[in-house]
Design brief:
The complex is a heterodimer of chains A (578) and B (209). With 578 residues, chain A is of the alpha/beta class. Chain A is 22% helix and 18% strand. In chain B, helix 4 crosses helix 7 and helix 5 packs across helix 7. Classes of the chains: A alpha/beta (578), B mainly alpha (209). At the A-B interface, helix 5, strand 7 and helix 9 of A face helix 1, helix 2, helix 4, helix 7 and helix 8 of B. Chain B: It comes from Sphingobacterium alkalisoli.
Chain lengths: 578, 209
């Protein structure tokens, strides 16, 4: 029999960080800059946007012209991974659904994310709806960290003074595109608020930062940025942390479990090198999980010992519970006013130029909380399938002699139709608060392991009436905005049978809640600092600690909370040493 | 870094000048002859290996490929602005796509056969051997979904698939991108909608946002 040799690294690090995305990256940045010796483990390969971004590539440089065969968001998108990873399955309880998106690479999903950077507001931390749970912390406690993230990373936007949509320290926002002017006008007529977008893209030089370039408006943030003009964890956090000399990065390191001692404290982690399948253990005075809400929960549940029989940090039995994504639904159309448009470069930034923060009072609605709306459309770079909608609607274009036209066709007339309709399309997508519920969860599948022999996750997630009602409301809003703009709706308007277009749980890639924080160790996994109640040197810094997301995309809050947790770790160490 | 440094870092700013140097690397990728050397940085090894493997296989027969070549030029013919779909390499693109997304193989192969059978029944010839007015007549049956006869529904579905593939292939080629007038993908500054366009659309006086 071949002996499975485990290689032990004798060095004891001050902290081991699992994961290099927003949460792990920020923890690495803060701790390394404070002089802590940090080991960062990333399950995927090294990735530097400066070298590896497929930014500024043309569609014909992809043999599939950007189609989404091997990457769910297209050939140029900067996410190595997707809904399914070869050899790393997950399962679902029959009758439930969850789509789990994983990016295995340095920086994780921050390489391709939408850069939409919204703060949660006072009522997101302390809801007044009587349905959703309150956090153990207030907006005012998090605000100083949001402010520091704004200054450290950079964000554009405008000061609006909307009560539950807190303002930040903003760079100038990009001006709206033509379709966005029409949308703004139509939405306001429909009673929907529209304000300039908020995104982590450097529309101006970031004061005090010499390492990052300024946005040059290619609109391709999703491909990651060669001049570090937007936020990726690698370019903004991990590389600067490595430059201190205090952070060591090990890539292709898939963590198996957190190792604990007889007192139940974390002493390190074990991992497998995904390229040569060798086993390793490393030692640390603290272990910080930032592997993604579900992956961190998986690691904790798989870290069983006599002190932690249900998995480390899981004496409450709540690790994996309260899993929630955002709700999402969308509608597409085109604006006849934009047909035969003049051509010019309107690539703009790759994040949103405008958006609609939640604008209603819930008192008269059948669901708590709300959603925001993101808008799309314009003269974008051609890619696979981008004109498929034209033959479905080209009966709206007058024929050569002014007579009514049929949909479809071929030949010179069709070729001209493609030109006439290009850039006239518009889209809108709602992103809303999904409720954190105990009975939506991930757990360890008792029967399955992945190719590394690590037990895999099994998901159990169902939408409830509140989320379906929210999607219905989205569709009504979208139609009313389309109507006020004079747009033609091109997508099928989804009805009750398709849950009003409500995307499957997980599809919005805002997983959170699996290691929720709280003051009561029986009702939460972590305390309000992101520290495990039953393992004092174990911390979680991804979206696992979220008690309940708002409708705000969660990255900015992950960054703020990870910064807060990291400084708590430093304070604890100072107190121990004094 | 300021914007000048940014452009310099990208190699877009010629040393000592303020002029944006001739942009982008316009090297054409010939999808029919993809070689390992063409691997772009940031493309994963398994993706590139897959691309190579796909280009080494042939799916369509000579007859099928000839039919596709004829059909895509019916869909997007040459005009004063640009060339035809086949001149832009669309048949090779379609050959690649049915291997890349194999769910398209039966609809394409079967659809081509359906068209030949229909053509044989009506005109005693396979499609490519028919006279041009016969070919037009066959396409007119299946190119307009809302007025098509229920008995040719399968033909309509085939033609819709082929039309979408043709438009994808053509308008993402160098020729097609130029034709449709996409002028982005180059470093610059976005200062909002040009004044003349604002005026044309009545936004010059409104000051929205």
């Amino acid at each position: 029999m071949i002996n499975l040799q485990i290689k032990e690294n004798p060095e004891e690090y001050d902290a081991i960080i699992v994961g290099s995305g927003a949460g792990g990256g920020m923890a690495g940045y803060i701790l390394a800059h404070a002089g802590q010796k940090v080991l960062m483990l990333e399950a995927g390969p090294y990735f530097d946007p400066a070298k590896d971004a497929l930014q500024l590539r043309w569609p014909w440089e992809s043999p599939r012209r950007g189609a989404s065969t091997t990457r769910p968001f297209g050939d140029f998108d900067a996410a190595f991974g997707g809904w399914q990873l070869n050899g790393e399955p997950y399962t679902k309880v029959a009758g439930t659904d969850f789509e789990w998106f994983r990016a295995r690479m340095l920086g994780g999903r921050t390489n391709h994310w939408g850069r939409i950077s919204l703060r949660m507001g006072p009522e997101d931390f302390k809801p007044k709806d009587g349905v959703t749970d309150a956090w153990p912390i207030t907006y005012d406690e998090v605000k100083p960290f949001y402010d520091r993230v704004d200054r450290l990373v950079g964000i554009y936007g405008t000061v609006e003074g909307i009560p539950n949509e807190p303002d930040g320290i903003f760079l100038k926002p990009p001006k709206p595109r033509l379709n966005e002017l029409y949308i703004t006008k139509g939405a306001r007529k429909a009673g929907v608020t529209v304000i300039p977008g908020r995104g982590s893209v450097l529309t101006e030089a970031l004061p005090g930062n010499k390492d990052r370039g300024v946005c040059f408006y290619c609109g391709q943030c999703g491909r990651s940025c060669k001049v570090y003009g937007d936020f990726s964890s690698s370019s903004c956090l991990v590389f600067p942390a490595m430059k201190t000399g205090n952070l060591t990065l090990v890539d292709n390191a898939m963590v198996r479990e957190v190792l604990t001692n007889d007192e139940g404290l974390a002493v390190g982690v074990s991992y497998v090198n995904t390229t040569d399948m060798q086993e390793y253990t490393v030692k640390g005075k603290a272990v910080i999980l930032g592997a993604s809400a579900c992956e961190s929960a998986r690691i904790m549940l798989n870290s069983k010992s006599s002190v932690h029989p249900a998995g480390v940090g899981n004496s409450s039995g709540l690790v994996g519970k309260y899993l929630h994504d955002s709700t999402g639904a969308s509608l597409s159309g085109f604006l006849p006013q934009l047909m035969e448009r003049k051509r010019y470069n309107e690539d703009g930034v790759g994040s949103v130029h405008i958006y609609s923060p939640w604008w209603l009072d819930n008192k008269n609605l059948s669901f708590p909380r709300g959603y925001h709306i993101e808008y799309g459309g314009g003269l974008h770079m051609p890619s696979y399938g981008f004109l498929n909608w034209v033959p479905e609607v080209n009966n709206h274009a007058a024929g050569a002699t002014g007579q009514a036209k049929e949909k479809g066709g071929y030949g010179l007339g069709l070729k001209q139709d493609y030109r006439n309709f290009y850039g006239a399309n518009i889209g809108m997508a709602g992103r809303g608060t999904a409720l954190a519920r105990k009975d939506n969860y991930c757990e360890i599948d008792p029967n399955r392991v992945d190719k590394f022999g690590i037990p895999v996750l099994r998901f159990h997630y169902k939408w409830a009436n509140e989320e379906i009602a929210q999607a219905k409301h989205m569709q009504e809003t979208f139609q009313s905005i389309m109507h006020e703009m004079g747009a033609v709706i091109t997508s099928q308007i989804p009805g009750k049978d398709s849950l009003y277009g409500l995307e499957a749980p997980g599809k919005i890639i805002h997983e959170g809640g699996t290691t929720r924080m709280g003051d009561d160790p029986k009702k939460s996994v972590l305390n309000k600092w992101g520290q495990a109640h039953d393992c004092k040197n174990l911390f979680v810094v991804d979206a696992g600690p979220f008690v309940q997301q708002g409708d705000k995309n969660l990255t900015w809050t992950i960054l703020a909370l990870s910064m807060r947790t990291s400084e708590y770790i430093l304070n604890q160490k100072t107190q121990l040493n004094s | 870094m300021n914007r000048r440094d940014t452009l310099k870092a990208l190699g877009f700013l010629a040393a000592g000048s303020g002029i944006i140097a001739n942009s982008c690397n316009n090297k054409k990728i010939d999808t029919a002859k993809l070689k390992l050397a063409d691997k772009l940085p940031g493309v994963q090894d398994f993706e590139h290996a897959r691309n190579i493997q796909i280009t080494e296989q042939t799916f369509f027969s000579k007859h099928e490929f000839a039919t596709i070549t004829l059909l895509v030029d019916f869909i997007i013919p040459k005009d004063d602005i640009s060339g035809s779909a086949s001149e832009a390499g669309v048949p090779d693109f379609i050959e690649f796509m049915v291997k890349d997304l194999p769910e398209g193989q039966i609809p394409m192969r079967g659809g081509l056969k359906w068209l030949d059978v229909r053509s044989q029944k009506k005109y005693n010839n396979v499609f490519i051997e028919c006279k041009q007015e016969e070919q037009f007549a066959l396409l007119d049956e299946i190119a307009y979904p809302s007025k098509a006869n229920p008995e040719v529904q399968q033909g309509v579905a085939f033609f819709t698939l082929l039309r979408n593939l043709t438009a994808s292939g053509f308008f993402t080629s160098q020729m097609g991108v130029k034709d449709i007038g996409y002028v982005g993908n180059i470093p610059g500054v976005w200062n909002g909608v040009p004044q003349d366009v604002l005026k044309e659309h009545g936004f010059d006086l409104e000051g929205v946002i």
